Amino acid sequence: MSRLGVFVCHCGENIGATVDVTEVAERCKHMPGVAHAEDYKYLCSNPGQNKIKQAIEEHQLDGVVVAACSPRMHEPTFRRAVTDAGLNAYMCEVANLREHCSWVHEKADSTTEKAIDLVRLQVEKVKRNKPLDTIQVPITRSALVIGGGIAGIQAALDIADSGHKVIMVERSPALGGHMAQLSETFPTLDCSQCILTPRMVDVSRHPNITLLTYSEVEHVEGFIGNFKVAIRKRARMVDEDLCTGCGECLQKCPTKNVADSFNEGLSMRRAIYVPFAQAVPNIPVIDTENCRKFQGKKCDRCAKACPTKAIKFDQKDQIINVEVGAIVVATGYQVMGTERFPEYGYGTYPDVITGLQFERYASASGPTQGVIKRPSDGKEPETVVFLACSGSRDAAKGVKYCSKICCMYTAKHAMLLKHKNHHAKAYVFYMDIRSAGKNYDEFVRRAIEEDGVKYIRGRVSRIYEEDGKLIVKGADTLLGGEPVEIKADMVVLASAALPNHGQGELAQKLHVGTDPYGFVAEAHPKLRPVETTSAGIFLAGACQSPRDIPETVGQASAAAAKVTALLSRSHLAREPLVAEVNRKPAPQFSDCTGCLLCETACPYQAIGHEEIKDRNGNVLKTVAKINPGLCQGCGTCVSLCRTKAIDLHGYSNEQIFAEIMSL
Amino acid sequence: MDVLRNKARDLLAQGQVQVVIGYEAGTGGARRPSFVRSEADVARLVWDADCVGNLAGYLTRAEIKKMGKIAVVANAATLRALLQLTAEHQLAEGAVSALVVTEEGAVLELSNAQAVTEHVATLPASLSAADREKLDQLMALSREERRAFWEQELQRCIKCYACRSSCPMCYCGSCTMDCNRPQWVPVASHEMGNLEYHTVRAMHLAGRCVECGECGRACPVGIPIHLLTCYAEESVRRQFGQPAGTSATLNYALGTFRPDDQETFIR
User: Fold this and answer.
1) Predicted confidence (pLDDT) per residue in A228-262, tens digit
2) Chain B contact present for A597, CB below 8 A
3) Residue A73 clears pLDDT 70, i.e. is over it
4) Read out DSSP for B170-215?
5) A341 and A326, same structural domain?
6) Residue A612 pLDDT > 90, yes or no?
7) Are residues A463 and A413 in the same domain?
8) Do A24 and A74 belong together in one domain?
9) Helix, strand or coil for residue A133?
10) Do A429 and A293 share a structural domain?
11) Does A593 sit within 8 Å of B181, measured CB to CB?
């Protein structure tokens, strides 16, 4: 017979006011197998925990039921307490009298009866509990960083500096991400590339970082501490070991009319190219979709020009398999294109551009060497209208959320325009100005007060072309909705930041959750902001939601700290609440028939098979095998198994059945 | 029939198989399973329209497997069961040859899953016309009427488990019904326990039933119990498009987790 202790908590008034706690404790004393029951004001307090410990010793208890708040709250507390008194942690169960009873019912006899029932369930369960030990899983002490923007760069450097190996995967041919495209950064107006490029070089030189550009994550399996990742390293058609980055090949390429994605399509590049002058690595890529050679024409001018014979037209994609203990997702964002705005011309007016395109014009490394021009005729615009919240905060036509960065960069854009062309007029249409951040509001005030940017509170209903001008029709809601019409030379849409393309597929490969917009979901919005819903996978930067550089860098360092903490251990302790395939004496060996229907049902790929062999190595039976390191204890296989060969430790069929039958 | 006997004789004589499982004459004109292990016994084999039983159920038995390589005289249901058993890793690929008698009287030897799969694809729907009609009649009833029908029928069930023993897909060494820690389903054959047993069995066969009707034929009290599993199978096929017994690779609707599932709650 079990000797169980039941401890009923008042939780101050939380439980005590609705449930007759003393009555619960009294009635529990008479349950079969219960050797001791008592109630206490706050069991989670130190004196409360001591009561449990004392009772375990005094009454020689072999199991404990704590009737208190949700086990999510204090299960670890009470499990620690019973461990201190010499019991196995998993011989303690929590009956949730607060969330499941006192908070949801009125004070009544039936409420107390329900509380007693809830305790009875756990009493029946604990009677059948078995001591369990935490699972020790070895950790591969290296990390994978997906994305080579500022978030990935910062995370990789921080992890590498702490002495762990990092593999960094970047989809494009060079590091830098969106930050490399920016001109100046708010609120200090320091040059984006000037502060970024040293970091890029640090990554490429760091002895602990393996950089894989022009590569993508192909496949991920495994679990925290033990991920196996297949990375597709796409063929550059240029041998990275031989190439010296001299750039001879770039000059000779006859294909000159490919839209340059680094310049947001505002200039043309060749078919063999380096995304930008300061690119890391400074190794060209052949764009096979546009290269004459790959379109079946005769051309090998780049190969002829190459002094080191680094051009390899027969290069193939490589699959690189790596093992890592942690993964940081830093895949960034993309901006909504102008074609998404019917009222602003569906992208048909060349002089309606996105904020990111404006950045390229304003950038010294951009298509106009930093002179702000307009795409249609290359003239310098005199009147520029900036539209904040283009697509953001617009549930009907765009996205519901605030893209967060636009208020600040719009102020910056208007300011840069005024700095570069003192006669230019800058108008900003806005809904609200959201400039919370260190020196942010001062920055916006500076744009308005010192640089004379005209801020108009209102939305723009329509833009159309007339006599070479863009007519911007809006309303000034501070003047009582007075219609406003501006004849502009150029319009810049601060268009919404969206999850990066391919984000959804990557999230599925990684088994991480996404929010309704498609951004990677954090494990807890407040308390676990850099962890994903999958253990061992962390996130940094705008793949979680739109954010600016300081926040991204801070978050990347936070993710790196989490990774470092994980990798600093040699083993990982996991909850032993995992499923297991049973064993039986010969000739059955197991109830498992080896049908392996469970294998496909497992959402965590934790199920494989194993052969039961005799002494001579002959296979007697093939049965399912659950990897305890991968199993999350969801129980899908348990319910699927026809022969009940699978049982979940801590929640066995027998325990659940006994709970139900006790009612 | 002679072609079949000759084929069986050849296989046994050349040692390609150690046993041919087929049909022989039983009492009252019925056909019963025949296990032919020597050339001398080949004459016992018969083949005609009365050979409706599903012989696949024997293929997974340890005592049969021990005999060596097997050839089985297969009707459509046996072939489907053969595929499903291969998919569920109960038969090793190539361990069993299927002997199919064509309408022209020729005998095809299908010695691997590929060949069986291709042959099964040419066969018509597995449910017999009579069963089809009965099932349609049942589905035309209201839920209450249907429940009343099954309660009435299952009252007669004596829990002899003949349906389970005859079913080729009920190959489990230990059945949930026999599990007594915990005792999921009461042992006695009372109304509730009977309903529980047959509901659980239908659920276990949903997406796996090859619709051979063997359980219905095996029932000593004449409950058309196969209609229950056939209906479960049909529902799965209709709703998920994953039919049982058509492929030797696992395609089990109730056990498939796919990140691109059409239901968003599961992702």
Assistant:
1) 999 999 999 999 999 999 999 999 999 999 999 99
2) yes
3) yes
4) ---SS-GGG-BTTB-S-SS--HHHHHHHHHHHHHHHTTT-----HH
5) no
6) yes
7) yes
8) yes
9) coil
10) no
11) no
Q: Rounded CA gap, A485 and A461, in Å?
A: 10
**For A352-380, how does the pLDDT look when each residue is reduced to its tens digit (9 = 90+)?**
999 999 999 999 999 999 999 999 999 99
* Shared domain check, A480 and A340: yes
What the block records as the tokens of B149 is 């029908």
Pairing of β A383-390 and β A425-430: parallel
Tokens 């005799």 label which residue?
A614
Instruction: Please check whether residue B196 touches A, CB under 8 A.
Output: no
**At A343, which CATH number?**
3.50.50.60
Q: Dump the DSSP string for A286-339.
A: E-TTT-TGGGT----HHHHH-TT--B-TT---EEEEEEESEEEE---EEE--GG
Query: pLDDT > 70: what percent of chain A?
Result: 100
Give yes or no: residues A111 and A200 share one domain.
no
Q: Name the A residues in 611-650 with CB < 8 Å from any B CB.
A: 622, 636, 640, 642-645
Looking at the fold, whether A221 and A275 belong to one and the same domain comes out as no
Taking an 8 Å cut-off on Cβ atoms, the answer to whether B88 and A596 are in contact is yes
**Range(s) of the domain holding residue A623:** 579-661
CATH number at residue A67: 3.40.50
Q: Min CA distance, B264 vs chain A (Å)? A: 11
Q: Give the per-residue pLDDT at A469.
A: 93
Task: Retrieve residue A317's tokens.
Answer: 């994609």
Q: Residue B182 — pLDDT band, cuts 50, 70, 90?
A: confident
Mutate to test the interface with B, among A220, A595, A607 (most CBs of B within 10 A): A595
Domain count, chain A: 5
Examine the domain organization and report whether A74 and A100 are in the same domain: yes
pLDDT at residue B128, rounded to an integer: 85
More confident residue, B238 or A541: A541
Q: How high is the ipTM of this complex?
A: 0.91
What is the signed CA dihedral for A499, A504, A509, A514, rounded to 10 degrees?
Answer: 70
